[in-house]
């Protein structure tokens, strides 16, 4: 396996590309052959000529690309698998927890499906972790989006007509996205508070200059993947009550709380939001997995009667397509490099490798990942 086909994304909302020319150049230098579907990099400002310049071949026809490829690479899963040859290695994002039928289609077609979200969160695999790379950019952009919609500035400012107090920003969920949101809001001069169910992140919050909101929920912690464990209904209610006061004082609230493989917990209810100030902005970054905020929508902004605006912040990294593509591509390059067999000049499917065992979902005509059998 050494012939890579880079697909153009079909979703109109997708601005990223899975491999950028600089990484294609590295892969070709190793021994991979790369074919690129025309216009693949257009939305992030990259031309076909740039791919040709590093040694890739441009083709117009998707089926021709599938016929060439041992390895198919894209950002998102395709709507259909028709045309992808048996035993092809398909690498992309793939919402495996809600796409059982799609997984079965890949299995029936005899395709080796790699779900990038399932790459283990280990030190060795860190450079392949699209979850972290993309979430970091999304957290950054969430603050810029909220600031652009807020009817006041973020920093404190002294003016001839008096002092302007800093905006108050409350970040719920201190994972990769939350930490970047904290850092960005602080750099812009806001007063930042943050909460997470994992008490061990308190020092990280403080190191960024923010205040950690302490809420006694009893026993909490992290999963093996590094995500926050799911709370009990009683713990969620305690969290809501404590957060209501902080939210009522905040100008911006950004929620990032996700539970890997499960529906996101509802953290902000309509009653809590009704206590917030007119003009306040809420960004629900978990809207794509059920939402942390009651009433949030992935398709439109929701402006409530009390003047609070709820913005669905799903895949905000798409608004920064150049850097998002560079980081996504770097993750893919690291994955392809890790499994490169230099002696035989090909990608080696090594089922003894913990990384591949963690993310290879289908192979040999069936679903092989133990979590989905």
Describe the structure.
- With 373 residues, the protein is an alpha/beta fold.
- It folds into two domains: 3-118 and 321-364, Rossmann fold (3-Layer(aba) Sandwich); 136-319, Rossmann fold (3-Layer(aba) Sandwich).
- Helices cover 31% and strands 17% of the residues.
- It is built from eleven helices and 19 strands.
- It has helices spanning 21-30, 48-53, 62-68, 100-108, 130-149, 176-187, 202-207, 233-249, 270-274, 321-338, 354-359, and strands at residues 3-6, 33-37, 57-59, 71-73, 89-92, 112-115, 157-159, 162-164, 168-172, 191-195, 211-212, 252-255, 281-284, 302-303, 309-312, 340-341, 346-347, 360-363, 366-367.
- It has an eight-stranded mixed sheet with strand order 3-2-1-4-5-6-18-19, with helices on both faces. Strands 11-10-9-12-13-15-14 form a seven-stranded mixed sheet, with helices on both faces. A two-stranded antiparallel sheet has the order 7-8.
- A hairpin with a 4-residue loop joins strand 16 (340-341) and strand 17 (346-347).
- Helix 1 runs parallel beside helix 10 (321-338), helix 5 runs parallel beside helix 6 (176-187) and helix 5 (130-149) runs antiparallel to helix 10.
- The protein is globular.
- The mean pLDDT is 93.
């Amino acid at each position: 396996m050494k012939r890579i086909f880079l697909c153009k994304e079909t979703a109109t909302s997708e601005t990223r590309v899975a491999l950028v020319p600089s990484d294609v150049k590295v892969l070709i230098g190793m021994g991979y052959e790369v074919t690129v579907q025309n216009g693949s990099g257009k939305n992030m400002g990259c031309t076909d000529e740039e791919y040709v310049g590093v040694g890739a071949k441009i083709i117009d026809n998707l089926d021709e690309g599938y016929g060439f490829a041992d390895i198919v690479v894209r950002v998102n899963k395709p709507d259909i698998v028709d045309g992808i040859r048996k035993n092809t290695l398909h690498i992309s994002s793939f919402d495996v927890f809600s796409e059982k039928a799609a997984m079965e289609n890949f299995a029936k077609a005899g395709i080796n499906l790699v779900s990038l979200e399932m790459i283990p969160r280990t030190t060795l695999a860190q450079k392949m972790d699209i979850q972290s790379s993309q979430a970091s950019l999304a957290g950054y952009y969430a603050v810029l989006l909220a600031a652009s919609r807020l009817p006041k500035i973020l920093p404190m400012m002294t003016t001839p007509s008096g002092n302007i107090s800093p905006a108050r920003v409350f970040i719920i969920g201190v994972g990769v996205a939350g930490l970047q949101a904290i850092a960005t809001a602080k750099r812009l001069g806001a007063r930042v508070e943050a909460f997470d169910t994992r008490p061990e992140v308190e020092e990280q919050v403080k190191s960024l200059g923010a205040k950690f909101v302490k809420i006694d929920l009893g026993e909490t912690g992290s999963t093996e993947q590094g995500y926050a464990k799911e709370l009990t209904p009683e713990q969620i209610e305690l969290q809501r009550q404590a957060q209501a006061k902080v939210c009522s004082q905040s100008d911006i609230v950004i929620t990032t709380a996700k539970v890997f493989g499960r529906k996101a917990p509802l953290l902000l209810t309509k009653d809590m939001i009704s206590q917030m100030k007119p003009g306040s902005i809420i960004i629900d970054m978990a809207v794509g997995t059920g939402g942390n905020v009651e009433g949030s929508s992935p398709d439109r902004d929701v402006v409530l009667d009390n003047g609070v605006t709820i913005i669905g912040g799903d895949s905000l990294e798409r608004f920064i397509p150049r850097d998002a593509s560079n980081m996504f591509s770097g993750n893919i390059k690291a994955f392809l490099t890790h499994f490169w067999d230099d002696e035989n000049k090909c990608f080696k499917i090594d089922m003894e490798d913990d990384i591949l065992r963690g993310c290879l979902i289908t192979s040999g005509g069936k679903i092989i990942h133990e979590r989905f059998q």
